[in-house]
Design goal:
Layout lengths: L2 E4 L2 E5 L7 E2 L7 E5 L9 E7 L5 E7 L2 E6 L3 E6 L4 E6 L5 H16 L5 E11 L2 E6 L6 H10 L3 E4 L2 E5 L5 E3 L4 E4 L1 H7 L7 E2 L5 E4 H4 L12 E13 L9 E4 L2 H9 L13 H14 L2 E7 L5 H16 L1
Parallel strand pairs: 2-4, 4-9, 11-18, 18-20
Antiparallel strand pairs: 1-2, 1-3, 5-6, 6-7, 7-8, 8-9, 10-11, 10-12, 10-13, 13-14, 14-18, 15-17, 16-17, 19-20
Helix pairs in contact: 5-6
Amino acid sequence: MPDYFVYGGCLRSELTFPELAPAQGQAPNWTLRVGGLSRDDGAVVLSDVELSRTCRIRLTCGDGWFRYSNSCAGSFEIFANGSRILFEPAKCADLDAARADFVSRVLLYCVDHTSITWLQGSAVRIGGTAVAFVGPPGSGKSTIALAMARGGASHICDDTVAVDSVGCSLIRSSDEIIRLHADSKMKLASTVSPLRRESDGKYVMTQRSATEPSEPDGTKNTRCPLGSIYVLNPRERTRGGLGISKRLVSPTRAIGILLRHVKLGPLVLREDPARLTQHLRAIVGSVPVYELSLPRDWSALDAVTDRIGSWHANRAS
C-alpha cells in the first residue's frame, strides 16, 4: 500500500490519494483499508444530518469504534485509538468526495485531538511566525493566503488550520493541498493544472504547483508559532478609500467567534465542547485575534496583502 504525508504524519492506504505527497521511510501513523463493514444495529447515533435530497451524513459509535457515513461516498469506521480505519464505498460512490471527506473530516478525528483545535481557515508564514485567516465560506481565506504566498510569504495550509494549544500556540503542517473557487484560480493560478474539481465547484491543486516556494524541498517546518488570527469580514467597497482595517477582538468575544469556525463540526462528541472551549481559551490567551475588514473587490487584493504584510514586517525582520 502507498504511504502519504499528511498532518505531520504518515498515512498508509489502500484508497489512493493522488493529491497527497508520497511519504517514504516512515512508519504509518494511520492505516486505511477498503472492505465491508458490519451492521451498526444498536449503535449510538451521534448525528444524522441531511446535506441534500440525496446525501446524508450519519455519525454512530459503539464499543471501541466510531463510524462516519456519507450516503453519497461511503462509510469510514475508526477503531481503537484511531490508527486503523476501514472504508466501505457506497454504491456508485463518488470516490473524490470520499477522499475529501476522509482528509478534511475523518482523519482529523484520528489525529491527536486532545490538544489540537481544527479551524476552518488558511495560514501563511511570514518570517518565523504564522498568520491565520478564518471566516465563513467565500470570505477569501484561501485567496488571501495564496496571494500572500505568491508575494513572498510561505504557504502553510489551506482549508484546515491545526492549532496545537499546549504551551504556546503552534500551527501544524496540513495536507499541502489548496482548494480554490473558479474566480480565484483564474486570478491567481490560471496556468496550474488542477488534480480535480470537487462537488462544491472548488479546484484542487497541490501547494507546490500553485505557489512559488521560498524554500527548497524538505525544509518546511512541521510546526510554526502562531502570531495572529484574522477573522475576515469582507464588505462592498465604498467610495473614498479601500476600507482595509483591523480591530482587536477581546479574548472573551474571540472564543465565541472561533467556536463558529471550528472545523470538525458534527465530529465533536458530546463531551468535547468544554474541552474545546478550554483549548480556545488557551489560544486567545496567547494569540491576538483581529477582525479584518476588507473590500470585496479583486482590484484591491494587492493592497490587502500589502497591508497585512506591513503589519507583520517588523516581526519578520
